[in-house]
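Structure in, sequence out. Go:
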């Protein structure tokens, strides 16, 4: 077996070389391309986990350099990214565009924007990714690398780049993500009492006790909320839409109907009655096709608007450091209480809309406990009927 980390023999002048870089914990391959007119040696570099990876990348780099023409000398990374943002994301929803623009501005253009695309080498990209890995988690780091890679590919198709050096560089591991918070029993009861009678109270009750994603709640219409028993069907909510492109849910498994605990059905009935009264007072027609949680103009609320109101509710409920909480942590809390109550992971995965238990275990590992009960029944027992049929707005016993 080849000793992968043995010191490389010194390469002859003008030859390629491969060596181990301890600081980067990977192999570096240097390609000799002669000298610049100023006499500076041109040695673009690639990196990989093994020598075999590096050799393959060196061959690919040399092949691309031999096949491609010459890109405009003064075309920059910043220009390539701006062109891709303007032309390469047509048809994306506004929230996706905002996310890409923010990552591009803060992590690509701010770091590499002035670099000439013709002179960008794999070593520079490698150093940039290692630096970004110190401040970004794995998913964000993948998106940032993708922005640069796709921007350069967009430029190549238009004759503005010779090769895509991003494809020659391995993605390092991002920093560990911050752990999700989960409401304790005492905090959850306080939250369920706070701001009773307001839309944010109903919104929080639905997320915490049913496990609906915030991106699924914002476009929710009354036609999908069934607060009265229908034959053999208990009160339930049809989670069939989200704020994603074309309204699809996150995964096929995410398109689901969830039973509502009895107290949630009552909160939603009260919320509907109040909304209908407000519409009549304002001379507006109420419709079952209308939004359950519209803004003051009857439009779909933004995630920022929901987050601001949610943190205000947490502050009123006495939860510490509400600025550290996000609405997705209501799902974390839902999983935590279901698991603590003995609900098996297979049922929890169905409730929160995961395609299998792997994601549930990976994302909510700290909230899960070794394990029986249906999710809605369990929530009734945890917060309501099993404890004297107390509604979310009633004082704790």
């Amino acid at each position: 077996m080849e000793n992968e980390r043995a010191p490389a023999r010194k390469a002859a002048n003008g030859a390629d070389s491969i060596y181990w870089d301890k600081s980067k914990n990977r192999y570096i391959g240097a390609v000799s391309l002669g000298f610049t007119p100023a006499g500076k040696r041109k040695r673009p570099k690639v990196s990989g986990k093994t020598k075999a990876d590096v050799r393959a990348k060196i061959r690919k780099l040399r092949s691309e350099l031999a096949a491609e023409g010459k890109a405009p000398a003064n075309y920059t990374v910043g220009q390539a990214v701006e062109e891709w943002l303007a032309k390469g994301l047509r048809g994306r929803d506004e929230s996706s565009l905002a996310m890409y623009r923010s990552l591009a501005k803060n992590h690509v253009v701010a770091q590499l924007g002035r670099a000439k695309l013709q002179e960008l080498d794999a070593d520079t990209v490698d150093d940039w990714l290692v630096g970004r890995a110190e401040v970004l988690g794995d998913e964000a780091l993948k998106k940032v690398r993708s922005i640069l890679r796709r921007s350069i590919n967009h430029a190549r198709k238009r004759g503005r780049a010779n090769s895509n050096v991003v494809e020659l560089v391995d993605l390092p591991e991002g920093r560990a993500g911050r752990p999700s918070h989960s409401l304790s029993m005492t905090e959850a009861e306080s939250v369920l009492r706070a701001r009773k009678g307001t839309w944010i109270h109903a919104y929080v009750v639905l997320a915490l006790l049913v496990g609906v994603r915030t991106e699924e709640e914002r476009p929710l219409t009354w036609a999908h909320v069934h607060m009265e028993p229908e034959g053999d069907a208990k009160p339930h909510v049809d989670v069939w839409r989200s704020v994603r492109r074309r309204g699809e849910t996150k995964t096929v498994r995410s398109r689901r109907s969830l039973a509502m605990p009895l107290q949630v059905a009552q909160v939603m009935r009260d919320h509907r009655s109040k909304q209908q009264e407000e519409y009549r007072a304002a001379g507006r027609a109420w419709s079952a096709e209308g939004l359950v949680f519209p803004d003051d103009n009857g439009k779909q609320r933004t995630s920022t608007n929901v987050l601001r109101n949610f943190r205000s509710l947490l502050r009123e409920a006495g939860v510490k450091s509400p600025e550290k909480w996000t609405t997705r942590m209501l799902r974390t809390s839902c999983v935590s209480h279901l698991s603590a109550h003995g609900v098996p992971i297979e049922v929890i995965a169905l409730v929160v809309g995961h395609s299998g238990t792997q994601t549930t275990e990976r994302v909510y590992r700290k909230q899960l406990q070794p394990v029986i009960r249906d999710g809605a029944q369990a929530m009734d027992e945890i917060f309501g009927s099993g404890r004297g049929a107390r509604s979310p707005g009633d004082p704790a016993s």
